[in-house]
Amino acid sequence: MNIHTIAGHLNGLCDQSKTGFQFDCYPIDGDVEVLQVNIVGREEIPVFVSVTDNQILCISYLWGENEVNQARRAEMFETMLELNIPMPLSSFAKIDDKYVVYGALSVQSSMEEIEQELAVLSDNCLEVIDELVEFLI
What domain of life does the UniProt record list for this protein's source (predicted)? Predict the structure, then answer.
């Protein structure tokens, strides 16, 4: 399994996707191979996919630390913890100064499972932004 196989599958789905979404994928050059996956109509929240020997990692960036209302930061964290379990297939994390939602799959996952993870992660990002916008400036 690699990002090129995933990109080929997702780009080839067109309107045959089991999730109802259309995907637009672009490899990003760098030390680690990363695939930027845009869901058509949601390009402002891409999902970044990387594949290691053990997992397929899917990450979407939400906002930066500089966008958080510092007076309500602790309350935002509390809300994130409360949302973490009911948010299917996804969890919160922080990478440097950016807040993210991520999900991981086995490298043995089927293309349909990968497509499902990407769709759910995208849906979760929209819900998270809607729920936590009050904590941003």
Answer: Bacteria
Q: In terms of Cα–Cα distance, which of 17, 1, 130 is closest to 57?
A: 1
Name 22's Cβ contacts closer than 8 Å, sequence gap at least 6.
13, 14, 15, 39, 40
| Residues paired with 136 in a beta bridge | 68
* CATH assignment at residue 9: 3.30.1460.10
Number of domains in the chain: 1
Q: What's the DSSP call for residue 121?
A: H
pTM for the predicted model, two decimal places: 0.91
Q: What is the pLDDT of residues 95-127, one digit of tens each?
A: 999 999 999 999 999 999 999 999 999 999 999
Distance (Å, whole) CA 105 – CA 97: 25
Domain that holds residue 59: 3-135
